[in-house]
Specification:
There is one protein chain. The protein is built from 7 helices and 9 strands; from the N terminus they run E-E-H-H-E-H-E-E-H-H-E-H-E-H-E-E. With 267 residues, the chain is an alpha/beta fold. The protein has a 9-stranded mixed β-sheet with strand order 8-7-6-5-4-3-2-1-9. Helix 6 packs parallel to helix 7 (232-243). It starts with 22 loop residues before the first strand and ends with a strand. Bound molecules: iron/sulfur cluster. Iron/sulfur cluster (SF4) is lined by residues 43, 45-47, 50, 52, 104-105, 132. It holds the Pfam family Radical_SAM. Keywords: 4Fe-4S, Iron, Iron-sulfur, Lyase, Metal-binding, Pyruvate, S-adenosyl-L-methionine.
Length: 267
């Protein structure tokens, strides 16, 4: 566990609070005036390569996060969830330009729309939601949505998540039609979600609009799992195929250098 700094003393309710919110971890990035909320819910998918249940701490706080992912057993649920009032008190006085909602499916947190609303009205923040888009709550106070597509071929999606992707693909279109800024994300997992499937995802996205950006993430090996991480060359091949259909394709490697001041764990 990384050093915990700047941790304010607040009173925390041990069970799910009345002013319902499922936030278990909060990180602040001073350089970007960004606040990151990690939510914990009963996810509506069971992804075979789920990182969220392997590591509860924000990766930005962990210099050795790749090693931890490859060695950690699955994590148990957090013992404490912050209420909305506790969360707002925790961040009082901070300069916040950007709020990010991530973790174990934030859209299933009944308090998400209210938290986004409070951030927008108190700080004028630009609110970004990471989601699997199986279900969509009220997104009035969300500015940008990054949808993790997993796969677009129904059988493959089902094999990987145990779910059906009809709703995700419909919601992806709905978000686009809403005029919100939209990005897609997909993880390349050799032998599971290969470059050919990533090209299918790019075709699906381009059928809506070629300008929607796609981010390809290389899978990081998890402990006890047979899937391996892709090589840099495999990620580049997938990106090249996707670029035949989309104007903007980014890809991430695990070796991205940290920029700016170190992030601070608030809770
Ligand atoms: S959607 Fe996200 S949180 Fe849910 S199982 Fe998949 S990776 Fe894990």
């Amino acid at each position: 566990m990384t050093t915990v700094s700047n941790k304010p003393s607040i009173s925390v309710t041990a069970k799910k609070p009345e002013n319902s919110l499922c936030v278990y971890h909060v990180v602040y990035e001073p350089t970007f005036k960004s606040i990151i909320f990690h939510h914990w819910t009963e996810c509506n998918l069971k992804c075979r390569g789920c990182y969220c249940r392997r590591e509860k701490i924000d990766f930005s706080l962990l210099p050795d996060w790749q090693v931890r992912l490859s060695t950690n057993p699955p994590e148990s649920p957090p013992e404490v969830l912050l209420s909305l009032s506790e969360t707002l008190k925790l961040i009082e006085g901070l300069a916040i330009d950007r709020a990010i909602f991530i973790g174990v499916e934030p859209t299933l947190d009944p308090g998400l729309p209210r938290l986004a609303h409070e951030l927008k009205s108190r700080y004028g923040s630009y609110n970004i939601l990471f989601t699997n888009a199986v279900s969509l709550p009220d997104i009035s106070d969300i500015d940008e949505i990054i949808v993790s597509l997993k796969a677009v071929t129904p059988e493959l999606y089902h094999q990987y998540t145990e779910g059906e992707n009809r709703k995700t693909l419909e919601n992806f279109r709905r978000i686009y039609d809403s005029g919100k800024k939209l990005q897609a994300e997909i993880t390349l997992i050799p032998g599971v979600i290969d470059a050919a499937e990533i090209e299918e995802a790019a075709k699906f996205i381009s059928s809506i609009n070629k300008d929607i950006p796609l981010r390809i993430t290389g899978f990081i090996k998890l402990s006890g799992m047979e899937f391996r991480a892709p090589t840099g060359e495999e990620v580049e091949t997938a990106a090249r195929l996707a670029m035949e259909h989309l104007k903007t394709v980014n890809y991430l490697s695990g070796d991205m250098p940290r920029v700016g001041e170190p992030p601070v764990r608030l809770f």
